[in-house]
Each structure stands twice: as structure tokens, then as C-alpha cells.
Amino acid sequence: MLIDIDTLQKYQFNIPLDNVENVNYYNGLIASASSIITNYVGFEFEPTEYTEYIDEIKGGKYIVVKRVPVISITEIQVNGETYTGEYSLDNKTGIIRFNTALVEDDDVKITYTAGYESVPVDIQYACVELVQYLKKRMSNSLVGESSKNIDGGNINIETSTPLNVIHICNRYRWKGVCV
Predict the structure, then answer these.
(1) What DSSP designation does 65 have?
(2) CA atoms within 13 A on the CB side of 80
(3) Are the CB atoms for 34 and 140 separated by under 8 Å?
(4) What's the CA dihedral at 55, 57, 63, 66 to 10 degrees?
(5) pLDDT given for residue 144 in this prediction
(6) Do the beta carbons of residue 112 and residue 54 sit within 8 Å?
(7) What is the pTM assigned to this prediction?
(8) What pLDDT score does 156 carry?
(9) What is the predicted pLDDT for the residue at 61?
(10) pLDDT at 155
(11) What is the pLDDT of residues 143-175, one digit of tens each?
(12) Which of 5, 73, 100, 144 has CA 20 to 30 A from 158's CA?
């Protein structure tokens, strides 16, 4: 999860921690908000190990992994053998540049760890905002409704993710890199 109850407390959520139902409710909201953000940006923020297989080497000197930022590369295999040549890595873009060109028919397997050592503060804030939004949607019998008739008038209920959450998440969304 991107945040915990202590983080919500720091943002002035008044959560009585002695009430197990309340704690479970907020943990559920946190899990939902974390999942929504992670699925939207397309990767896990926590360090996660990935393995990718590339069977079509274009240009021979570059490979781009799909998950960024790259923390470390555990192993590169070419045609089933551990690669011992030199390479450089751009952690932010995921571009691996080989000093010696690979052959177009080479099958490459890369095992690496990507993510953040700690969840960025702005993503934590977006998660808090999303928890607040989800809590609001769950209260007042608004679940599943887009408008409601109150005192003879009709009000529209916000049903989309708050724009500030989307703007923050867009900064991290994987856009792909061409080399």
C-alpha cells in the first residue's frame, strides 16, 4: 500500500485507532486508493523485481525495459548465457546501452528491480486525497449515484477521480521510450 493509517493521521484524519472496524474501514480505503493509483500509472512504486524477455533486438546497442525507475539490474542473459560485456543504464528512462552491439536474432532475458526506495511524497498525498474522495463517496448513501434529488432540487455528484490526483499520477505514468 502506498500509505498507512499513520500517514492519514498526519493529514488530520481523525481515526480512533482503538476501534477495529474503523481501522479496517480505512485500511480498505487505503488498499483501494493504492490499487487505483498503481493501476493508473502502470507500475508498482515499491521496489519490485521484474523479468523481461526481448526476442527482437533493433539497432543492437539499446534495450528499453518497461518498468522505471530502474534501481538495479540483477542479470542479463543473451541466448541463455550470462552477459559479461559492459553496458550502461539510464535509471530514469530504462535504457540499457551495450558497449558491444547485440545481434538481431539474440534472445535477451533481463532481470531487474524497479520502483522507488520510498513512495514519493506527492504520490502519498494523491493517495490521501483519493482516500478522502472514496470515503466521501461511501458516505451519505452516494454509492453508485451520479445525481440526487434533495429538497425538490437536483444535485450532480462528482463521480470521477479528482483532477489533482490525476495530475499528480500523470507525472509518473509510463509513456514509453523509443531509441
Answers:
(1) -
(2) 0
(3) no
(4) -40
(5) 55
(6) no
(7) 0.74
(8) 58
(9) 87
(10) 62
(11) 555 556 666 676 655 567 889 999 999 998 866
(12) 5
Identify the CA nearest to 127 among candidates 57, 26, 18: 26
Residue found by looking up cell 514509453 in the block: 176
Could you tell me which of 100, 88, 89, 90 has the C-alpha nearest to residue 57?
100
Backbone angles phi, psi at 154, to 5 degrees: -110, 130
Residue 16, preceding peptide bond in cis (omega within 30° of 0)? no
CB 101 within 8 A of CB 85: no
In sequence order, the 6+-apart residues with CB closer than 8 A to the CB of 81 are none
Residue 113, exposed/middle/buried by CB under 10 A (0-12, 13-18, 19+)? Answer: middle
Cell readout for 151 is 429538497
pLDDT, averaged in runs of 10, over the chain (179 residues) = 91 82 92 95 91 82 90 95 95 92 90 95 96 83 59 64 92 68
